């Protein structure tokens, strides 16, 4: 296999999700050798975060979850960081890398891999001709190099497919292991180019399907819009309910999620669920059983049925075939107490228990009762009742439930007794979940459910329509701002849209370092001394960095954080390309929560809502901000609006240092800008969707490997500005605080890499 040569990367911009409509993936679970992956799937490089990759490895108890080894540059890193870095650098889906590691050397499941397995992790350069002696392999030996090479060669194929005739591609046909193959996508052709064998690629496809094809967790109820059949997802299959009684005796009908019919075809059909739960049945062979969800529990004898008080008229006659899909459960004898279960509350201490089969099971939260046992009545009993029972495991909430844990702003879906974080509101809405079905549970119940992998949308979700950017007549591209960060990509070349400083006009202050950002500044927070800078007096668009000045002025003008604002779209809604805040006219939100939306997730409309709480004259408020800037002696900074959308919002790195320092001197502003996550409910909800939650737009807040702590930060982005970032950081070694400002970062696809490098350099240098 040839070496990876020059790689040319396209820029990627992101926008929000809409409801799921599968667009391009195969709709059959059968292996089709002509279609392995779509190009969109293979290139969905940001479908998994670094945290998601680590969770994937942790969930499987992989050796790689704790492996720390050299990356392609010889720097020691955790395997998850190496995989994530290769995905980002090469714009290739990290799922592809994970599957490659398993297919080639079983590194995901191997508990004690050999050094040889790690050295040849992805099989890169190991060909049929020379095997492990190939020079290409030797040049790329080692886990870090192998991971990068496997991702890099796919990017190289995309960049060079038109000039290299040996790269397999559609619509040409090839003979692979005696079978005629016509790749239907470039991705399929590239996989056959990398591994020219049918079975090897079938193994790849099988792993991908088993790991990544299912999005909805087990326990979810699904139906299509044009079919009344409801399915339960269980063990990756969809089990149809044959009757409404069978469904209603098991689940709350409000939990049904309606999806396109093509989504259902992604799941194999499982056995149907035809009998009501807790039915007493008699088989043609004369056996009696209690149906307890997936188990058939035999009665010790027909006499036992009568002794336990069951009415013969309630017994259903079934065939042995009807019960073949049920697992055999524990036998019910005359001494079995509460085979159907009983809910009790102890009058002496108010503790809740579920009693069943001579065991008592503690219930940590009353919310579990409504979710798990809607048909049982809670009874108050003496603690003496427990003396005839033995202790069992605490009750976990039912699979498929949506929960919000007190003290945690994340929404989870329960699967196999574990809680899976739903990555964002976009993901929640994109999956078609109903906010009304979220159950709030206490911290103890949350701890009881171990945390598993997060849930994210597949890359085959259709995004919002592409529209024009607001402030230029440049080529049509999807609108985005700092608050419009999501997981679906639309590839385009936007490098020409960012305002850049010609190289012959570059100026530097202090020590210099090579950085792709157009302007940067490193300063001492306490004194304001500038240690280093590039183009620090060059005027650039602020984008959402303007929000820092707005919130500073809001607090100066007497913003009441305990007050609230009722949304009026006529006066408070930002233009459509900037409005992504989920709210309707008449809904009311607390000011402190709006401030979270502004400074943590950089929402735009909430800024205007907050301004309306202190003045009816928004234009006059902007004038006051500009007057304050003049009072500070800032002559190159000018604000056009309160949220940073207009390209005319200008500043320089030197002058923004003053704004950022003065704003963060206010404890409230600093606290909000340093908060990693938030969650709140609207004070007045009119659409049944009161809950909001999000993470900070600065992904570095999640990075635990940094040599510094981020005390406060703000992101900003419009096309003309590129990515902006301002941070107040504290060096972990001595607590010294710095202000780091980077303006005009062109690497939107990896926007935090350059600021991270700049800040780490500052920690070592000053």
Task: Give an account of the 3D structure.
The chain is of the alpha+beta class. The chain has 4 domains: 31-212, no CATH class; 280-328, no CATH class; 342-391, no CATH class; 498-765, 3-Layer(aba) Sandwich (Beta-lactamase), CATH 3.40.710.10. Helices cover 26% and strands 22% of the residues. The protein has 23 helices and 39 strands. The strands form 12 sheets. It has a 6-stranded antiparallel β-sheet with strand order 28-30-29-39-38-37, sandwiched between helices. Strands 10-7-8-9-11 form a 5-stranded mixed β-sheet. A hairpin with a 5-residue loop joins strand 17 (342-346) and strand 18 (352-356). Helix 2 (50-59) packs across helix 3 (79-90) and helix 3 runs parallel beside helix 7 (143-160). The radius of gyration is 30 Å and the shape is globular. The relative contact order is 0.09. Mean pLDDT is 85; it is low at 1-29 and 459-494.
Helices and strands in order:
Elements: E1 12-15, E2 17-22, H1 39-42, H2 50-59, E3 68-70, E4 76-78, H3 79-90, H4 94-105, H5 115-119, H6 135-139, H7 143-160, E5 174-176, E6 179-181, H8 186-194, H9 198-212, E7 221-224, E8 231-234, E9 237-240, H10 244-248, E10 256-259, H11 261-264, E11 268-269, E12 280-283, E13 288-292, E14 295-298, H12 302-307, E15 315-318, E16 327-328, E17 342-346, E18 352-356, E19 359-363, H13 367-372, E20 378-381, E21 390-391, E22 402-405, E23 411-415, E24 418-421, H14 425-430, E25 438-441, H15 443-448, E26 461-463, E27 488-491, E28 508-510, E29 519-524, E30 530-534, E31 540-541, H16 546-556, E32 564-566, H17 569-572, E33 588-590, H18 591-599, H19 605-612, H20 618-631, E34 650-651, H21 653-664, H22 667-673, E35 677-681, E36 691-695, E37 708-718, E38 722-731, E39 737-745, H23 753-765
